[in-house]
Fold:
Amino acid sequence: MSTNRTDVRRLAQRGSNDRNAAYEILDTAMVAHVGIVDEGFPVVIPMLCARDGDHVLLHGSSRSRLMRSLAEGCNACVTVTLIDSLVLARSAFNHSANYRSLVVFGHARALRKLEEKRAALEKFVDHLVPGRSADARPGNAGELKATLIVAMPIDEFSVKARRGPPEDKKTDMGLQVWAGEMPVFTKFGSPIPAPELPSDADVPDYIKAMIPDR
Structure:
């Protein structure tokens, strides 16, 4: 939905309300920054995130002030940014980055039913490590009680992205300075077993699939 809050004014050509683009950003990201106003002061906290259909899922301790505020339906803002490459121009002023970002405004809803919370936690686990929820022990009643999970609708949102090479001034084009893009990647390294893990415990196939060159 386009509103006064979501309309991109600076470099408006980079903005959109493309829902599929918003989903792609959330499905790629691991961390979102969640902002609220608490006792008159802005507070922004980085949190693990996941997507369930047209909602952003967030979770934390039931004792967390941020989570309690979200569960009570306070005004909130969720942002996600992915850096795809650094953009090096011939001049320092025109350096930039290729990125994809998402901003969502709204009010979250607390998930109260145990089965609803279990399903949401499975979404979190499988978002970070696909296939893990079927392997790990699910949360018990005490653990679920200690955890607050909220779902924020992806309704009032905007996407902003930059793609492509540097945009140098014509007067700089003749400078003998390298210009171009430096791609940025996030990848997983070799798994490090827990100290108490039996020495003959095999790394699961779903984890091996996440490691480059395997």
User: Anything to note?
Assistant: Residues 12-167 form a domain with the Pnp Oxidase; Chain A fold (CATH 2.30.110.10). The CA atoms of residues 11 and 195 lie 51 Å apart.
